[in-house]
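Appendix B. Extra example for self-study. Work through it before the problem class; the solution is given directly after the inputs so you can check yourself.
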Amino acid sequence: MLLHSNPVVIVGGGAAGVSCALSAAAQGMNVMLLEKTTEVGGTVTRSLIHTLGGLFDDQGNFLNTGLPVELTKRLSRACPHTRKRRIGKTWVLDVNPVVYTNVITDWIKATPNIDVSYRVNIINVSVHAEQIEQVSVTCNGKSRTLRPCALVDTTGNASIVRHIDTELVANGMALGGFIVQLRGIASDALRFPKGVALLREIRKAVNDHKLPPECSTLWLDTGVYPDEVYVKFNVMPEDYDTAHMRCVAKRLLNFLHALPGFGRAFINRHGQIGTRDAGRIKGEYCLTETDIKMGRRFADVACRACWPIEHWHPQKGITLEYLPEGHYYDIPLSSMQVSGFTNLWAAGKCLSATPRAQASARVVGACWAMGEAIGKNILGY
Amino acid sequence: MEIQETLWNYIINETLGGRLPEGFDGDYDLIDSGTLDSFKMMNLIIYFEQHYQVEFGINDIVPKHFKSVNALVAFLRNKLG
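Solution. Structure tokens for the complete assembly:
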């Protein structure tokens, strides 16, 4: 029998995993947070995400209370360059990914009842009567068997649910992002709409074969520091090659050197490939594009979201569809409960949703709110 | 089709997705209202480049040319001679 005194096991230390851990610990539960790499932070940390979407509504007010608000406060306290910024009809929080990583690492360390393990591989998950019974892991070469009261998959690609049954996961349907941080740029080089003009020059250069085709769909964005610009390349994760993309970035840098404000630009950091949709679970409910556009409310609401449908289609590229002014929708808990299981959840990017619904619900602020909701409801739902 | 009509149709259908904001007219501020963000401006540029066989240079893509539908019409008419 599984007891509530057994730990909540959360796999994946990204936005949803960390918030779920903080939230469950605040309820007095023992939490085991298992991370496959050497640090928490997930996509923000590894892929250099510098704009956090999904924290604010279209007026710039917080969409959800609780941990997303606390996160914003902590990030603002930790770095004076953290700032809220309007992009089109949305509001984002500009952050330094390193600051983000440090803030959440310290936050978890200071929270009682959270045991974080790094370099963890999941070996086996055993199921009995619609419940997760045991999770077998290796950590730094040592094997362990855990008996969780609940298991939460916050891996971003539903790898734990996939481990149990591949039929419970729909494959991802979006381009991934490879981000490069440039420094040494004139402070107003991307001031709107100069960035658009630069992108136009880059795309012309691709058409004239002066730049490789990988540059045709890239995007440029400002960072938190005045001399900082992020370049976002969009590639299918299965086609991604680190060495090749670094060469592409270098060729782009040489091209940019001739453009206004980029004469002294240099590559400061490369991110790792970040996936926008690497698989969605089949949940008790599947969030749809209609739910999002109709602003549907659910009795089992976990959190609110209102990010545009930002779909990075593998063939068609990006389409951005804003929701109506003042609009928001609910993400229900049932879209994070894995179908047919009583104690298996998946939060964050791998929630149960159609590809275009996920293209709105996947952003960092929503992931924080989703994780928090599961932590609060994990035993009482 | 006249530039003005083509542009209105494009802004209403593609940029605004068929949803007209309150008080929308030819002088409505497309930039300050957030209507024309980077994505939508890029799409508009690509559309007009293909539709009218023109090229937008780095000096064409400045706020005063994109501030409103009327400003865009004037800029495009000038560009197309």
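Self-check: Chain A touches chain B at residues 86-89, 192-201, 204, 219, 260, 318, 320-322, 324-325 (CB under 8 Å). If your reasoning did not lead you there, revisit section 3.
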